[in-house]
Amino acid sequence: MICWRLLCVLLVLSSIHADPDTVESKVDPIITCYVSTWATYRPVGGKFDFSNVVPSLCSHLVYAFVGINPEDSSIKVLDPWNDLEDNGGKGAFQKYIQLRNVNKKLKVSLAVGGWNEGSANYSVMAASPVRRKTFISSAVKMLREHGFDGLDLDWEYPTKRGGNAADRENFVLLVKELRQAFDNESHSSGRRWLLTSAIGASPDVIRSAYDLRSLSQHLDYLHIMSYDYHGAWEPVAGVNAPLRGQSDEDELSVEKTLELLLSSGAKKEKLLLGLPFYGHTFIASNVNEKPKLGSMTLKEGFSGPFTKEKGFMGYNEICAELERNASYWSISWDERSSTHYAVRDTHLISYDDPKSIERKVRFGMKKNIAGMMVWSLDTDDFLGDCEKTTGYSKFPLLRTINKAVTAALQEREHELAKNKKDHVKKNNSSRIKLNLKIMFPVLLIHQHVTF
């Protein structure tokens, strides 16, 4: 009788598993950093090259840009003197790739396209099987020859700016064939290349340009260009990258972009939310008016001392200006968009800073997306000129992202561990009850037989 009772106890105990206190595996933060390589030609104070990069702050670097040869659709180097080592060139390709020696996990990809490339060359190439093959062959050759870890497609945008309606389907064909070619290369070399794409954030572009369900099957990551929602090209001052729009119906916001992408078939585990390291500038059309968001403005904004582009200022230019001339600027926080704007006379700047960047990171990570993307490293405060304001010696925006993403991932891990622990407890309780139900009649039978 004692043996039977002992057997029952052992059976019950065998159904109980140890409660997990930690998650079995941790996910490294995904923080993809674009570098606009023409920043090497900026004046002292804004000049940026590989030596300014802190490799530990990025999981992926994207070298922007190479272009498309309109004659045959092969990939072409746009700045041989800067990119290559030939004929006394600066060899920036290799210098950025060698940053992997500092961060062994770092992946360095090559971006093809960009705003200046436009859409027409991509459209012509993607529409032709022959031209797609040429493009893909040249991509494989370039990645292999220079040692890049992947290719980033920056087509701005399918079906727009000289493209046509067939671009949507042809883009999928291009991505699918690239993925197959990269997989074939992986089988022979043992090295898997990344395939990513920058995608537009406006609802019009998303709906017309992308078959997101199909693209998500073949791309490793989709880099959401969730900025440039408003700028000096509009007649009123607006927010560059609003977390939320000015009304619930306003679709031009980070929130609405993510909602639309996810509802349109994009896989959340492949989405990277784009964060701007720059702001847009405006000049009020009424010289007697102190501008605010929504004020009527001129067609062109003002420029910064380094980037020298009207309507645009890098964060490094903005924070330095606001710190240097603090008494002239009035800084306000717009709660709806979760961004700052600064006003001086007829001038207004809409920009992101560590506070607004952290809010966007928190918002995106709560949606369980893969991580963040930044445009671009060269306009963060990479020299630490604004340390008094930001509290960081260098790269305040990028460091804010790292801190916020890491915190969000830790919260995910704790939540996962808690859910797993609760699930195990619930299952153990059910098993114990079931085993007791099974063994109780056995005990009764045994006792009956014994007596």
From TrEMBL:
Residues 1-18 form the signal peptide. Residues 29-408 form the GH18 domain. Gene3D superfamilies: 3.10.50.10, Glycosidases. The keyword Hydrolase applies. One of its GO terms (molecular function) is chitin binding. SUPFAM superfamilies: (Trans)glycosidases, Chitinase insertion domain. It comes from the Eukaryota. Keywords: Glycosidase, Hydrolase, Signal. SMART domains: Glyco_18. It holds the Pfam family Glyco_hydro_18. GO terms for biological process: carbohydrate metabolic process; chitin catabolic process. One of its GO terms (cellular component) is extracellular region. Belongs to the glycosyl hydrolase 18 family. This is GH18 domain-containing protein. It comes from Gryllus longicercus.
